[in-house]
């Protein structure tokens, strides 16, 4: 293959996204969150959907938040999550991820 710098740059740009999605729990949480729509799911709801413990879901969501993939926001005493990274959102659609509505 001839040296294609734009393809190498593309790989470098996508690598962090694939690293985030490379973990089964994080990917499952993102797919569940994507399906429910922005701000529609709490950490406990997502943990139940995905079948992990609350601390596991919380740690995974915090890592996703630290990397700018999701954001959390308070609604009273409840914390809800929303997917904010457009690249990840697009990729989830390419993977076949759908929205509830």
UniProtKB/TrEMBL annotation:
One MF term in the entry's GO annotations: DNA-binding transcription factor activity
Database matches in InterPro entries: ArsR-like_HTH (IPR011991), HTH_ArsR_DNA-bd_dom (IPR001845), HTH_MetalResp_TranReg (IPR051081), WH-like_DNA-bd_sf (IPR036388), WH_DNA-bd_sf (IPR036390)
Domain spans labelled HTH arsR-type: 8-101
A Pfam cross-reference name: HTH_20
Protein keywords: DNA-binding, Transcription, Transcription regulation
Entries under CDD domains matching the protein: HTH_ARSR
Domain of life: Bacteria
PANTHER family registered for this protein in UniProt: ARSENICAL RESISTANCE OPERON REPRESSOR, TRANSCRIPTIONAL REGULATOR, ARSR FAMILY
Protein name: Transcriptional regulator
Organism: Corynebacterium glutamicum
